[in-house]
Structure formats: C-alpha cells, structure tokens
Amino acid sequence: MSFAQSWDFTPGARVVLDDLRKCSREYEWLEEPYVSPDGETVAMVAALPDAEFSLAVNGEVWEQTFDKIWYPRFSPDGRLTALVQSAGEWTMAVDGEPWEDQYGYIWGTLFSKAGDVIAAPIQVDGKYGLVSNGVAWETLYDNANQVVLSADGSATAAVVQVKPLAQADIETFQQGIFSVAVNGVAWDSIFVNCWNPAFDPAGKHVATTIRRTLYDYSIAVDGKAWTGAYACAWAPVFHPATGQVAAPVRKAGAWGMAVDDVMAWEPRFTQIWHQAYSPDGAILAAIVAPKFGEFTVAIGGQPWDITFPVVTDLVVSPQGGRVAALSSENNANFAVICDGKVWNGRYDMAWPPVFSPDGKHLAVTVRQGGKYTVLCDGKAYAQSFDRCFDPAFSPDGTHVLIRGIADGKVYRIVAPVTAFTG
C-alpha cells in the first residue's frame, strides 16, 4: 500500500494550524511554510534567540537546534527532512534526528518514489558525490553534478569529472573529461560532456546525453554510446516495459525522436523535448515546435492542432490515455491544455497538472490577482487562498485534497470532484 492510500479522504474542511505565527518557543522569525503531502503537518524554519535554528512543526519546535537550517522537505512517506549545519559541517536531519556523518556541504534532497530512501549530493574536502540514507559514495570526484536517484532508491548516479583539468586546458577538455558514476563507480567511457542521466524503472540501467566532440552529440546507455551522431540531443527516457531509450535528436537541421538510435519520429520539428511515456509504454508524448516559436504537444509524433508561445509541464495520465500540459505567453497568461483542448481561464501562474489515478480527472493549482485556488476539470474550487500547494486525488479519484493557507490559517480540505463549479 502506498503512503497516499493511507491518507484521510473523509470529505470536509479543517484547520491544521490556526496561526502561522504559533511557536512553542520564543523566536526571532519564522520562515516560509511547507505543508506535508497529506496536509496534516506544517513545517517552518524557526530562527531562535542566540543565533540558533530549528524547525517548528505544527507550532512545536524540534528539541535539537542547529547553527543553520534550510531546504525543509517532506518525503513521500511523510517524514520531514532538512539540511542542517553544526560547528561548520552540514548533514541531513530526518524528523529532528541528524545523520551521523557530516559533510562540507549538502544540498538538493532527493527521495525515492516510496520515500524510504533519502539522498543528496555532498562536498567533502573539495570532492563531490552523493549520500544515500546516510551512506556516502566511497569514491568522490572533482566535479559531480546532475544527480539522480532511481525510483526504488537502490541506486544513485551523477555526471562526474574523471580527469583533472588545468585552467584554460582546452585540449584536455576536448579529449573528454566527463563520465557517469553509478553508486560512485564511474563508467570506463569518457566524453567531452554528459547531461541528464536517467535510470530505467528498475534502477538497473542508466542513459545519458553525451557529446563526443564539440559537434557530435548522442546518447550512451550503461557507458556504451549509440553509433549515430547528431547535431544536438536532449535528455533520454527509458520505455517502462521494453527498456528502449528515447531521446530527441537534431539531424539535417530539424528535430526528431530516436529510439535506440533509430528515428521513430522523423526530423520535421524545430524543437522536441520533455518527452514522457505512459506507464505501460503505449504512448510517447513530447513538447514540440512545428514552427519556430510555436509550441504544442505531439503524441506518437503527431502534434496537436493548436500552438502556443510556450508549453511546459507535460504529464501523461496513470492509465496512459490522456495528456496535459501548461501553455503561457512570456511567463504570463497561463492556461491548461488537456487532450488537445484549452481550458477556459487565463492565470498569472499555474503549476504542474495532476491526474487522478484512473485518469478521469485533472487538477491544477493556479494563481490570479494574488489569490490561489485549485481547478478540477476546468472548474475552480469556490474558496481562494493566500497560498495553495499541489492538489492530490483520493485513490478512487472521486475526491481532491486541497492544502491552502488563508488569513494565517492552514487548511486541509477534502472536496468531491463535484464541488468544483466555478
């Protein structure tokens, strides 16, 4: 059973915290509130007297204090994490308990799908790598970036620098100094650049975009490069069932989609990126530009017949039959696109769409005129908020969990999809 299936989806509204300023200890200030995925917990960094910091959780401050604390995040299983510093060293604290080891720096917390594994990139004595559930890579590197954690948490990966590079040493750089390390072990293959490593669903294989020369882009899987050479390439993704790798590539002046180094979508677009498979792999969708400056979504290589200046945040429904995204105009006039149709309403801002588990409903958090609310299937919830977090559906898809802040109070609302009428 997933953590979300254990949430309380009893219809109704209640106040989780009646005053955001509430704190069990004297404080200098409280920072930005974070609300747990289930809406039951509110966490804020609390600056305490004597230059100490901790986290206030539903108004109750952790017993332990730190010199600095930042980046509070809730794991999918509901645990509260934060990056904390004591005596000049950093580590991860989970529900108030810091990991045993400390690091020169730690950032960018990562979670496995179930939340049982917590990872982050670290720096120790000028070397870089990753730590997972408190255990760091045995080998650290001069440079480690673009870090990823497999969905099951069994593996971590990053682009790493495997050769030293002196200042302005262009020749060595062009010979190749980067590779990908998996669980701290670098591939034997070395490239000029690597970007966007990605795990397959089982966490057993890694694909990455590579540059073999300044002008030769391709994809490498488990260190083995595709034979094909392209003018450019974007991030790869794995087919969830077959293990094939799909990546947008530029060839002969246009963009297409290559699957295992074979053109699956012919190069006829001015741009393709952010591709995503449906969970069963039957659908491959991507954001595309049929013409310069005109973006839309393509499914199986066929674009929708509407275009926009910008398209972002593409999502495929859990059942695979529906696709949604956001459109905008120069970071304004956001709209929701679903199945090739645009919802009514334009907004100052919108956040990534969320499908119900059965794919029948779609919810989106939006902001207009400084007020936030949640849309479901194009209709707005009646109440607006000073701030609103991502919505979530009940397992049967009939109710929406809304987490919002209004007038200094934190609300947890479970509304049936029929309650959205605006």
TrEMBL record:
<protein>
    <recommendedName>
        <fullName>WD40 repeat domain-containing protein</fullName>
    </recommendedName>
</protein>
<dbReference type="InterPro" id="IPR011042">
    <property type="entry name" value="6-blade_b-propeller_TolB-like"/>
</dbReference>
<dbReference type="Pfam" id="PF07676">
    <property type="entry name" value="PD40"/>
</dbReference>
<dbReference type="InterPro" id="IPR011659">
    <property type="entry name" value="WD40"/>
</dbReference>
